[in-house]
Amino acid sequence: MDTDQEKTKKTEEQLDVYEKLRRRVTKTLSEMHEKINTETISQAMEKALKEITELGEHSKESVNEAGNTLKKDISSTIGYGKSKIDEVAADSKKHFNHWRNKGGALWQDIAAEAEYYKELSRDKGGSLLLHITKGLAEWSHNVSERLGTSLIYKTGEITHGGEFRCTSCEGKIHLKKPGRLPPCPKCRNTEFRRS
Fold first, then answer.
1. Does residue 120 lie within any of the structural domains?
2. Residue 118: which domain range?
3. What integer pLDDT is reported at residue 124 of this predicted model?
4. Across the strands, what pairs with 194?
5. Considering the entire predicted model, what is its pTM?
6. Burial of 106 (0-12, 13-18, 19+ CB in 10 A)
7. CB 178 within 8 A of CB 105
8. What pLDDT, on the 0 to 100 scale, is given for residue 109?
């Protein structure tokens, strides 16, 4: 097998395990409603990592890499969102749609769950999003400190998607689904921040 085929196979495995992990964490978070806090989010993440590892379909290394990537994605998305919590409470629909459209697959899944609950009660969608945002903001602060996670993304890293801004030229990349970040299309720089 040549190097390109090995890289492609590894990328496919990493994306597969990332998607499984993301879906499990999203499902658990959507079931928690008002109980979302640092502890329950950590438990949801650890439970999902353990379940996927126990299935034995992926290497422990791939599962751990996917876990670290998902933690980084959540932290970087919340980094943008936590400054908006007060606005979300006042105008949740506007920000709900913004995060769903720019945050990638993770937020699209959460948004779909929140929309379901919003149909049951006009307040539930905004309430669920507010609880998720507050809980994830606390959790991501702890994770970033504990892991020393930089919220800078580099070309080749896997992410759940969303919008990224080049640290050099401010060019934008929008990934509609999980995948690897390409170099900046304007200046070929390899570092990005979530925008």
1. yes
2. 3-150
3. 45
4. 164
5. 0.64
6. buried
7. yes
8. 74
Identify the sign of the CA torsion 82, 162, 110, 97.
positive
Q: What is the pLDDT of residues 67-105, one digit of tens each?
A: 888 888 877 777 555 555 555 555 656 666 666 666 667
Q: Which two structure tokens, joined as six digits, stand for 78?
A: 């919340």
Strands 153-154 and 158-159: unpaired
Sites in the chain below the pLDDT cut of 70? 1-2, 32-34, 79-104, 107-108, 111-134, 141, 143-150
User: Residue 44 carries which side chain, given as an amino acid letter?
Assistant: A
Cα 143 versus chain centre, distance: 13
Q: In whole angstroms, give the CA distance from residue 33 to residue 100.
A: 18
Residue 155 lies in a domain: no
Q: Compute CA distances 18 → 75, 81, 85, whole Å.
A: 16, 22, 27
62: in domain: yes
Rounded-to-integer distance, Cα 65 and Cα 60, Å: 9
Contact 125, 115 (CB under 8 A): yes
End-to-end CA distance of the chain: 38
What local confidence, expressed as pLDDT, does residue 120 receive? Answer: 43
